[in-house]
Amino acid sequence: MVKEKHFHKSVLKREVLEALNIKKDDIYIDATVGGGGHTKAILELGGKVLATDIDPEAVRYVAEIFSIPLEEKDGRLSGKGKRLILTQGNFANLARTAREFGVGEAAGVLFDLGVSSHQLDSAERGFSFSKDAPLDMRMDQNLSVTAADLINGLNEGELYELFSKYGEESNSRRIARAVIRSRIERKIETTKDLVETIEHVVGGRGKIHPATKVFQALRIAVNDELNNLKKGLEEATSLLKKGGRLVVISFHSLEDRLVKNFFRQREDLQVLTQRPIVPTREEILENPRARSAKMRVAEKQ
Q1: Residues placed in the known binding site for S-adenosyl-L-methionine
Q2: How many other CB atoms are found less than 10 A from the CB of residue 46?
Q3: Do 106 and 118 meet the contact criterion of CB atoms below 8 Å apart?
Q4: Less CB within 10 Å around the terminal CB: N or C of the chain?
Q5: What's the rounded Cα separation, in Å, for the pair 26 and 171?
Q6: CA distance linking residue 194 with residue 188, whole number of Å
Q7: How far does the signal peptide extend, from start to end residue (predicted)?
Q8: Helix (H, G, I), strand (E, B) or coil at 69
């Protein structure tokens, strides 16, 4: 059983419901179900939901909440309730997932991006620099390449490019060089190994932990997050009926920039948020992990 405390409170819940404009018996897709908070709120307002997540732990947890029996087929979990379809999958394949469960079009699609609190709090997943664990960072354990594989396998130039491109890390060159030096003595296999290597060249903690951007870069690379997001947005747009809403919550500038540009470039989407919606001060005090959230909304034309 997955403990409830491991799942974070849903970010911007009221704002998400307003943006989706929930109507009774319309079908909505939660492309990142996580702890199920947004899905639960949509169901309470009378909507029907196709909920998916790449993380099997999230799928199992939400199945427990709604008492949905799960079946495993071809390595994927799925189950059906009266108003909820729950399945494990990558949102890059959203259209195929929808077809598989007989969903032709949706009144709204929600993406709540980034690492959920239960992934950060589960030390063995290797997402957190505050807990020592193997350098894994795979959202889907079926993926073959881990963060340790990248850290120990890439050359200095490739590491520099990775940290710069996906982490926007200003000390990328120095950190890449330090990683190479550390590898001469022994492999970097745990989060602690990597954090110590970074702190040795960057120094102590400032406003944000010195390992934050490097960990972000590795997570994005391991899970191919930006390419999957672009594919997911394309598939979501194709599934929306006219007047349907696409709602995306991002947690760092690379995601937000990608979403903003995607919305602007699509002629079949009308942007409803010229500036992103952000959490209130009260929500951030109650849930500090919401502080970097930005929500953008577009409507299918």
Answers
A1: 36-38, 53, 91, 112, 119
A2: 12
A3: no
A4: N
A5: 49
A6: 6
A7: none
A8: coil
What lies within 8 Å, CB to CB, of 197 at 6+ separation is 175, 178, 179, 182, 188
List, in order of start, the domains of the chain with CATH numbers: 4-118+225-300 (3.40.50.150), 124-223 (1.10.150.170)
How far is Cα 38 from Cα 46, in angstroms, rounded to an integer?
13
Annotated binding site: 36-38, 53, 91, 112, 119
Q: Environment class of residue 3 by beta-carbon count within 10 Å: exposed (0-12), middle (13-18) or buried (19+)? A: exposed
Give the E-state strand segments of the chain in sequence order: 27-30, 48-53, 71-73, 76-80, 84-88, 106-112, 240-250, 269-271, 294-300
Whether the per-residue pLDDT at 1 is higher than 70: the answer is no
Residues 268-297: tens digit of each pLDDT? 999 999 999 999 999 999 999 899 999 999
Tokens of 208: 């944000």
Report the run of H or E that residue 64 belongs to, with start and end: helix 56-65
Summarize pLDDT for 204-238 with one digit per residue, the tens.
666 788 999 999 999 999 999 999 999 999 999 99
- Could you tell me the two tokens for 90? 């990558």
pTM for the whole structure: 0.92
Q: Which two tokens stand for residue 31?
A: 């492309």
Query: Starting from the edge strand earliest in sequence, which strands make up the sheet with 269-271, in order?
Result: 71-73, 76-80, 84-88, 48-53, 27-30, 106-112, 240-250, 294-300, 269-271
1 and 63 Cβ atoms separated by less than 8 Å:
no
